[in-house]
Amino acid sequence: MVDQKLVTLKINEREVQVAPGTLVIEATRRMGIEVPSFCYYPGLSLQAACRMCLVEVEKAPKLQTACTLVAMEGMIVRTDTPQVHAARKGMLEFLLANHPLDCPVCDKGGECELQDMTFRYGADKSRFIEEKLHQPEEKWSEAVYYDAPRCILCFRCVRVCDEGMGVKALGVGQRGVNSVIIPNMQDHLDCEECGMCIDICPVGALTSGTYRYKTRPWEMTYAPTICTHCSNGCKVTLSVRNNEILRGNNRDLSGINGEFLCVKGRFGFDFTRHHERLRLPMIRRNGKLQATTWEEALGEISTRLAAIHKKHGPAMMGFIGSNRTSNEENYLFQRIARAAFGTNNIDHHRTADYAGLISALGDRAAAASATMEHIGQARAILLIGNDATNQNPLVAWQIRASIRHNTARLYLLNAEPLQLGRQAKMSVASGQGGEAGAVRWLATGAGDAPGELAALKEALTKESDLLILFGASITGAAIKDLVAFGSTLAGQTRYIALGDYSNSRGASDMGLLPDRLPGYASVSEKPGRNRYGQLWGAAIPSGKGMSAREMLAAAQTGKLKSLYVMGANPVKTFGFKDSKRPPGLEFVVVHELFMTETAQLADVVLPAASAYEKSGTVTNTAGEIQRLQHALDPSGARTDFDLLRILSHQLAKLGLGTAVNMRSPEALFDEISANVAGYDVALSTLISGGAALAAPHLAVDGASTAVAGAIFSSGDNLFTSGTLGRYFTMIPSLKEAEATP
Ligand code: SF4
Ligand code: SF4
Ligand code: SF4
Ligand code: FES
């Protein structure tokens, strides 16, 4: 039966139905028919520059460009005729007229679209005997180089920088055969250095400062994993040779980010080989940290912690976890704190109030959670208290996509003006009461309302299906106000709390909180406590524990005797007086990649694997669970998962908790998905590279109990990544990175 809403046409004698407005090139792709293209790129404006996509259309006097031709009812298209082949061959001959044909040394050799097209459709000899135009290669920044003779002038780079990034750093100079791509600052770039232009270039005209001339694509192995730097969870494919990451990209367009990566996702991997990377366990002897064996280090940890537990009890022991370690590691960490030592003194640096949002939404939480895809499809977006361009680059990319494709309206409520303001329908300064005060006024009318806020409210109440994104300034009661306001709006209002790092959300979901077990079950609520108690073979304490800040303060006054830190730098984040270790703090353990301020104060330091050296899962700020895939061997370091598992065996021998017998993160994920509210997703979805939305639900009871000052952002920008970012090598060499504080 023919659906009246669809357009029916024939391509290569096969009938096909497509939605009205579909381009012929898209219709052919859906049928598995290749129509070659260079300038056409889905999601970007149409250019019709390269003429590679010419097809025959019955009754049309000459060949048509399939990338600009809209499918019409009854259209008859042929893509495989002698005339079409001759046209493709002719176009390639023109493109190659001035091309240097340096494929044997070009970075793109082996994965070049021009090479592939020439192989399939081109001539096997050239008729040109004239000297080729030559221009020297230009270095536009530490990240981006341009080789004009290789450029085929498809303008993908110009469009992705303008439309996708909203930066407009690239343009076209000269005319005709002399046309070249030019950077915005005469001979160099001043931009976000995202490398999107390099990635999207079909040939080797734009090359990457970190990868160029290092290897051939077939010499590398490829590991699709998740970027570790911000909370957005971009999928990144790491290209590896000899246990070194040489490149990061997402050219297969899989994952929640499509082709997008920001500067950190693309270039922020060299910390893995930094010369200061810890490779051996260390133990403090005679006041100094000295290299030791794993046996001695782990033995010292279990015996000293057991002794402190016996002497001072669980209330004087503290555990601070990470917002970059995997869900499995976070789950194990809090299990050891709670089940082996019987303490709820467990926390991490909280960068968004996820518990507050889930608790404010109650049983609407699953329906009202938005994903990264929702942002790209939204019609109206309210962004509160977050500089997404700097702090959440994929979110900003998706916001720009929704404006471009859906003419979405963007509303900003922020203390300072934002770069996204250029695209916003309305930008409102939050005023004296801050963003939380403004939200309070939106919900209740209480407090002072700056004039603009009333206009914002009026505009928002005319929207439906509003998507609300908010940063760390909106917590607890302010989230309740926001949800109360959102509930008065038409359609389905959706929310995302924006945190800082790759597993900020997962750390909360896995119960690295002093008052919440995994899945936000309250520690004071019997059913949840009993369930985890049975699972872990120990009674779970019921009193709320100390927050990270409280633990450090307690250590200062001698009320905390041991501190176990996994992948965090609380001494820097929360501070010790004079950065000195308080005398009453008897024992400090740190799992770390580098000798951080916290590691320097430790008694035992265990060298830990980075996110690129392990497998497991992480949950992005929107609640999308994705899989980390091990790309490198950690060369001396060990994963936190392994360290905690081994420790659980040693502690069990000392009568503390039960041993963890699961040998792989995958096995532990089964326990998580069977028990943690919202995580009952199939591992197979994740293994096949998909993202599954964690569906938080009623496990949260009552209000969020975040104490003042517990939730704050690190305020990273495009070029920084907390403590880890200090060990970037290439990114700090970018002049834009130098210019930012
Ligand atoms: S690196 Fe990014 S911001 Fe800079 S020119 Fe290329 S696309 Fe534009
Ligand atoms: S530099 Fe690459 S992407 Fe840009 S116009 Fe040239 S070939 Fe196209
Ligand atoms: S937006 Fe965030 S997750 Fe994506 S590449 Fe950048 S730092 Fe990584
Ligand atoms: S792809 Fe159609 S003209 Fe370039």
The chain-level structural class is alpha/beta
Number of beta strands: 28
Global morphology: globular
Separation, N- and C-terminal Cα atoms: 63 Å
Give the names of the bound compounds.
Answer: iron/sulfur cluster, FE2/S2 (inorganic) cluster
| Largest sheet report | 7 strands, mixed
Strand order of the largest sheet: 15-14-25-24-23-16-17
- Count of separate DSSP helical elements: 26
Beta-strand share of residues: 15-25%
- Evaluate the radius of gyration: 28 Å
Uncertain runs: none
Give a quick set of tags describing it:
single chain, 741 residues, alpha/beta, 7-stranded mixed β-sheet, 5-stranded mixed β-sheet, 26 helices, 31% helix, globular, binds iron/sulfur cluster, binds FE2/S2 (inorganic) cluster
